[in-house]
């Protein structure tokens, strides 16, 4: 019986792409909130983007995104 070789690189890439899409949606939500709330501090959005990514488990601690 042949064992099926799992291509981890493509699997990982697919997971990262899915995660990036989630992150993009969250960022749009925050940007919309910033526009609605008239928040001018965009650095807060950047910080929140990283925090949300970490919470969603997209960015691991060792990643430098």
From TrEMBL:
Pfam families: Ribosomal_L29. It comes from the Bacteria. The keyword Glycosyltransferase does not apply. SUPFAM superfamilies: Ribosomal protein L29 (L29p) (SSF46561). One of its GO terms (cellular component) is ribonucleoprotein complex. InterPro entries: Ribosomal_uL29, Ribosomal_uL29_sf. One of its GO terms (molecular function) is structural constituent of ribosome. Gene3D superfamilies: 1.10.287.310. GO terms for biological process: translation. Keywords: Ribonucleoprotein, Ribosomal protein. HAMAP family: Ribosomal_uL29. Belongs to the universal ribosomal protein uL29 family. This is Large ribosomal subunit protein uL29. The gene is rpmC.
């Amino acid at each position: 019986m042949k064992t099926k070789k799992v291509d981890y690189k493509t699997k990982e890439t697919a997971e990262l792409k899915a995660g990036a899409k989630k992150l993009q949606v969250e960022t749009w939500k925050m940007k919309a909130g910033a526009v609605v709330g008239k928040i001018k501090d965009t650095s807060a959005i950047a910080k929140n983007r990283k925090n949300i990514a970490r919470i969603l488990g997209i960015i691991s601690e060792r990643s430098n995104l």
